[in-house]
Design goal:
This protein is an all-alpha fold. The protein is built from 4 helices and no strands. The N and C termini lie far apart (about 35 Å). The relative contact order is 0.18.
Length: about 80
């Protein structure tokens, strides 16, 4: 069964560290919200039964999630 990605573990930051940075950086906050939404769309697509997306559509959703994650990493590096 598909599960959401743990962004905090992937970034090697604690949830508390990220939350603190989010309060000081509106762009980071926005990117993390976009990531959560993209991740939810991937999980929904992976669990769909009758209206399951094509492999290409699922791949595009995953690529979009990865692009947002890359932007988060860049923003974290810029703010450090």
């Amino acid at each position: 069964m598909p599960v959401p990605h743990d962004l905090y573990q992937d970034l090697s930051f604690s949830k508390e560290d990220i939350q603190q940075k989010r309060t000081k950086d509106p762009l980071l906050d926005s990117l993390i919200n976009k990531y959560s939404q993209a991740d939810a769309e991937v999980v929904k697509a992976e669990t769909a039964q009758s209206d399951a997306p094509t492999d290409d559509a699922l791949k595009k959703l995953k690529e979009r999630r990865l692009q947002v994650k890359d932007k988060i990493v860049k923003q974290l590096q810029a703010s450090s």
